[in-house]
Design brief:
The protein is mostly helical and 74 residues long. The protein has a domain of 29 residues. The chain is built from 4 helices and no strands. It is elongated and about 80 Å long.
Length: 74
């Protein structure tokens, strides 16, 4: 009969998880609301409201694009 190795209390515990960047969701959410306010304010037709909704969802792409265009100017 073989003896099974006994595990200590520490070996049974899960490794500690480290969460980083937890505020990014809040920043995106505030940016989403701000983008919707901006785009909806300028929309006049139903089609523009639909476009404004989707532009609000992808506002970081517009931000990065405009930033790269600005940085390219010399």
């Amino acid at each position: 009969m073989t003896a099974e190795p006994t595990l200590t209390k520490q070996e049974h515990q899960k490794p500690k998880e480290i969460h980083q960047g937890g505020g990014s969701g809040a920043v995106y959410g505030l940016g989403l609301i701000g983008a919707w306010v901006y785009y909806f304010k300028h929309a006049t037709t139903t089609q523009e409201y639909v476009v404004a909704f989707f532009k609000g969802l992808v506002w970081p792409a517009f931000l990065v694009y405009e930033l790269l265009v600005f940085l390219k100017k010399e």
